[in-house]
Amino acid sequence: MAISSSEIDEKFSIFSYGFRPFFLAAGAYAILPLIPWLLFLQGVIEPSIPLQVWHAHEMLFGFVTAGICGFLLSALPNWTKKPALTGKDLKILLGFWVGGRVAFWLFLFFDNPLIGRLLFIDMILPIALLIHVSHVLISAKNDRNYIFIGILLFLALANFLIILDMNELGVFPSGSGALFAINIIMITLSVVGGRIIPNFTRNYLKQKNSVYKIGKLPLIEKPALFLLVLMAIIDLALPHSILSYIIALLAFVVHLIRFSRWGFHKVMDSPIIWVLHLAYFLMILALFLKALEGIADVPFNLYLHCFSVGSIGVFMLAIMSRASLGHTGRELRVETIIIVSFVMVLLSAVSRVVAPFFPVIFTSVMALSISLWVVAYVVFLKVYIPILINPRVDGKSG
Q: What angle do CA 142, 150, 249 make, to 5 degrees?
């Protein structure tokens, strides 16, 4: 017997599907860790811990990890035809994420060894997600997506290394854990982007009856991934080494060739697709800037923030916007204000990258970058909170 829309409304919860609570968490947490950073830049607070390390960790393992959780928990049922994680189990997983955030905020205000040890609470979420994803993929024999088991394993390792550093127990050069995390996220973006961007583009062009063919070069697909993995390994042991810069340059060339086959110029009339192309291109540009760090002695900041603020910021906003529409039965068309938010994140990245070149107005440019980012994600929350907390418009469950 069919279930009526009213019956679905009565049973509905934001814990009915993984993207709902975790995209809400990611949207809110895109903003919160920037508040102490902005107050520090304005001279309002002077934390006793390295705020830059804290800020980097919370953006990577608070903001980005929440987005990854939402994406994977929603993609797994499609990949494996297994039931989605919902209800109590999903609440527990979100609770692990919240627990990690509480520990890190306590550490920001109370710098002592006991609070430092509490940071290891933040290991529970990546381990729990790793176990869940591994179980579902292996039980379904979905070997095409086993790569995400490796990604989650190494993300957990990166988190562990950063927490060790913050407890002054580090075994690798200082900052290696954060750089390793950034590299693993770059691998994730390459894998996910390499699948969805050409597919979404191809489907869109078919709808337009375009004869343009989206191409892939099989010979460069594995080298594209291998070079990023190799760079991550090298950066862990030998950060800022000439070998790492050489690999980054090779990766730049390979990924640029890969990207050139995806028809970016054919989707300029579809913001929900071109923004994904933009995010991937910013990753490629970041690789070039990393190579320039070794070749032309350009600041490390250029690579770091081109990728973290630019590529990650744009990709997260794009994926959460699109997935929230698709998984709630809505048309895949973003509002004009969301398109503006895409541009604002891009301008935030540009401002953050160029800020060190203007020392006299550095603080002002940084404040501009933060403001653009914050407004972009406030807009996301304003538009998508109603979508994420209400039932699907087509009456289906989920």
A: 120
**pLDDT tens-digit profile of 320-372?**
999 999 999 999 999 999 999 999 999 999 999 999 899 999 989 999 999 99
Contact 330, 388 (CB under 8 A): no
Q: What CA–CA distances, in Å, run from 397 to 7, 26, 80, 219, 328? A: 10, 23, 18, 41, 9
| In 210-358, alpha helices (H) | 218-237, 242-260, 271-295, 300-305, 313-326, 336-354
Which residues, other chains included, contact 296 with Cβ-Cβ below 8 Å and sequence gap of 6+? none
Q: 152-177, pLDDT tens digit by residue? A: 999 999 999 999 999 988 777 778 89
Q: Which amino acid is at 234?
A: I
Q: Which two tokens stand for residue 18?
A: 């993984």
The candidate with the shortest Cα–Cα distance to 308, out of 25, 33, 10, 12, is 33
- Domain chopping of the chain, boundaries: 18-174, 190-398
Give the 3-state secondary structure of residue 173.
Answer: coil
Please give the DSSP secondary-structure letter assigned to residue 235: H
Query: Residue written as tokens 């017997």?
Result: 1
